[in-house]
Design a protein that fits this description.
- Strand 3 and strand 4 form a beta hairpin.
- The longest helix has 7 residues.
- The chain is globular.
- It has a 5-stranded mixed beta sheet with strand order 2-1-7-5-6, with helices on one face.
- It is 9% helix and 34% strand.
- It contains 1 helix and 7 strands, in the order ββαβββββ.
């Protein structure tokens, strides 16, 4: 049997997504409206969906990654940036 879903952790909560889902899409599915806060304190999130804007930066397993360029993996830990 082929596995079609995986579980990752988003800001401390488990989230089940389909294989092939990007971190940015998983964050949107989790209801997260912002991935980080700008230097002016404004909420920011993915804009372009292809890595150019850099607004989807999040911590993935402790490292800064672009959410729109990173595929979810089983057990992955994702945290939005302050």
């Amino acid at each position: 049997m082929t596995k079609t879903a995986l579980v990752l952790q988003v800001n401390g909560s488990d989230l089940t997504v389909a294989l092939g889902t990007t971190v940015a899409a998983a964050l949107a599915l989790s209801g997260l409206t912002a991935t980080r806060t700008s230097v002016n304190g404004e909420p920011r999130s993915a804009v372009c969906g292809m890595g150019i804007c850099q607004e989807c930066r999040v911590h993935v397993d402790g490292r800064v990654r672009l959410g729109c360029q990173t595929l979810c993996a089983p057990g992955m830990v994702v945290e939005s940036m302050p």
